[in-house]
Every structure is written in C-alpha cells, then in structure tokens.
Structure prediction request, 218 residues.
Amino acid sequence: MKNIFRQFTKDDFFKNVNLHIHSTYSDGRVEFNELIKQAKELNLKYYSITDHNSIEGYKHLEKMPDGLIVGVEFDCFFDLNLPHILGYNVDINNPELNALTAEFEKGIMEVPKRILTSRHPKKVIEAIHSAGGIAVLAHPCCYWCLSLDRFIQKLVKMGLDGVEVYYPYDRITRIVKFHSRKTVKKLAEKYNLLLTGGEDQHYSLFNMEKNINWDRIL
Ligand SMILES: [Zn+2]
Ligand SMILES: [Zn+2]
Prediction:
C-alpha cells in the first residue's frame, strides 16, 4: 500500500484520489454506501472514508469495492494540541485497533467528549501499525505550535509514516492559519514521509473541488 501511496502525484488529488471523507458513522452528512456510489460515479481510482474514531462502516460492508482503502481518523492529544491521525489500510479485525475504537464511545460526536477521549499519538500510531496500517498526520497547518518541524519530528520518532499535504484549506474554521502547506511539504521531504491528500469532505463528493491549482499553493 505504501508503494501505491508513493505513486500519487499532486494531479491525482482530487481528480482521481480523495483519501479523507466522513460518513454518517461520524459527523459526515452522507451515508457510507451512498459515498461509495458517488465515488463510483466520479470514477475515483482510490478513496478512503475516514470516520472519526470508527471503522464501523467497513464492518457493515459485504464486499470491499474497487479503489476503497480502509481508513479511520483518530483524535489525539499531544503538546497542547489535538492532532488528528489518519490510519490507512488497517485490518479491521485487529484486536489493538478495535480496543482503541472501543475506547471512544460509539457514535460520540460531541466535541467535549471527543477531546476527553483523545489518546496519545504514540498509542494511536502503534495501534495503526499493529493493524498493518499507515499512520498519517491530518491537516498539519491547523496545529498550534511554534515549530511545526519539532512537532512533526516528535511524531516521526513515534513512527509516523506520512502527512496530509493536498487538502483544500489551511485555516481552522477558515480563519486561523498557523502554517502553510508549503512548510508541510518541505517537512515531508525532510523526514521522508508519504504525502497524502484528501478533502476532509463532510458532505457530498459531488461538491469536490476538482480544479485546485496545486502549483500556485505549493
Ligand atoms: Zn481532522
Ligand atoms: Zn476529517
């Protein structure tokens, strides 16, 4: 799977590839199966539905559709930040991973509860790895820290495999911006991390912005 991730180019995001989508199993508005239908209609080559702290959607699937990569997004607490860590290509029957998702109450989406349940990224990365998956830091521009370099370096020491670089926003609630995607890309290269991307779509995939000029942003 890492080799597939390495092959993605900036032009793939979001024309053929979208690795960050939420369904009604967390706080997305569109049902899991409906998202699969939409991805088919849009001819996405690879996509991942990454619900918060939940792999329930995958457990209810009868058959994995072509192009769908198992994904999940965990809430973490670390260095006064609440980083989100994405896990890709995880084995949904892995006991460590299931123990971790079980710690998050089923379907809890109220933000205070989610923050209280947040886990240390080391624990999350270890669970993702024990389930054979790839651990990726989501939307790195959004974290408050003086040095994003040191923040990412600490996560790399815990085993982080990649960072999300291609995503359509760099501001929390569209206002606060701590780091640029250019910085994130440079750090990904410095630490030899995988570069991933996804929309963090909470609505229909038909809303996907297909004409992002990455050359201008990065
Ligand atoms: Zn997130
Ligand atoms: Zn998300």
